[in-house]
Amino acid sequence: MSKVLFCGRSPYHQPYWRNILIALEKLNHEVIITYTQGQEDNEKEEYQENRFKVVRFPIRNLSRLDHVVRDTQTVLNYRAREDQSAYYFERWAARLPRLVWRIVVNRHTGSLLAALRAEKVIQFFIEKKPANKDVKSFIEEIGPDFVLASPANHPGSLDIECVKAARELNIASGILALSWDNLTTKGLFHAVPDMLFVWNSVHKKEAERIHNIPSENIEISGAPFFEKWLRPEFMEGEKEDLLEKMGLKKDVRYVLYVGSTKRIAKDESWLVKDIDEILRREFQNVYLVVRPHPANVEPFKKIASERVVVWPKKGVLATKKEDVDDYRVILMNAMAVVGINTSAMVDAVILGTPTVAFLTEKYRRTQVEAVHFKYMMESHAIGLVDHIEGLIKLLRNIELNKAWGEEDRENFVKKFIAPYGRDCMPSEYISKKIDSCVAH
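Structure (tokenized):
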């Protein structure tokens, strides 16, 4: 039996990769997991992983110099990109020491660094620097046949060190692109894997252009995170049962508002109140259900009323089957799904529910200026409104069975989520590619 070592950032990310590890196990691979952060979270009931062996990662951090060098390269890369919102450049630049920040952000010195191709010089030294010796010894001791890492490019990522060590030990390695914006809003990959698994052809171009990953090292797999909506075992649950859980009558219609992370929109409660007001004024017997992002629940705690239901009140990252079933039912039975910029809008599009992005100047830099959001806009898979009256018009069309964009939604799914069709599970595609690599 061969071994696959999975190096993840945190147990919190389980929904993004767990099906892949289960598929590998079914192909007779022993799967071992290690977490570079949040090891203690694995002891919490919602994250506890009893199916696979979990081992402790050997280090807590790299040197401060290592992180500064890697962050500087990422910031310089953002500076050179004209297609991305300045918000992400500023967010990463804020991680740098004050002196380095001043040099990189300054118009004159920053331009000079770009002219001198400083990013490429830094990349050369990062590639030449050996992997952390403790991580290398750790991998040698486990003796895997394949090392898989994800996300490998978040702030302070240590999981990329596993890829670097694997290459030095002549062990095949892979990286999973974690999310729909992972290649455009996060850091660079500071080591080149044998296989980078991306969701679609757009991701592939981003990997080549931004991260300098050779085309032959990139595998298009579809989106493992969203495959739950393609799997028949998650097509259970009844609307009436769900409405009862939420304290609503079975014949109630509702608009679903899906919350974003704090980084996208810290407090959206003002918009929720505006939507509630227009639903009360313009529509009879249409309620507003709010599903907070699990990492941004606080702003919604004081807005529940007779016609507004916040559910689940504490926020839930759907990992258990019953939670996924409930989430599917609440998405599919909504009149429409409304949000700022969150992956829940992609969930709704895949399930065929009319989905609306509320555009506002307040969030412009994380909406219309962000590369991944532009893809959604240009696909016409979602409706776009910039004022409450526009939302009223779209909801009126839905009431009259004039929902828009059905064909565009399906085209979006084919292009971005399931490039090989809804019957091809990304987790199975990835596991077979790894199995073939190990076999050879």
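The CA atoms of residues 279 and 286 lie 6 Å apart. The radius of gyration is 23 Å.
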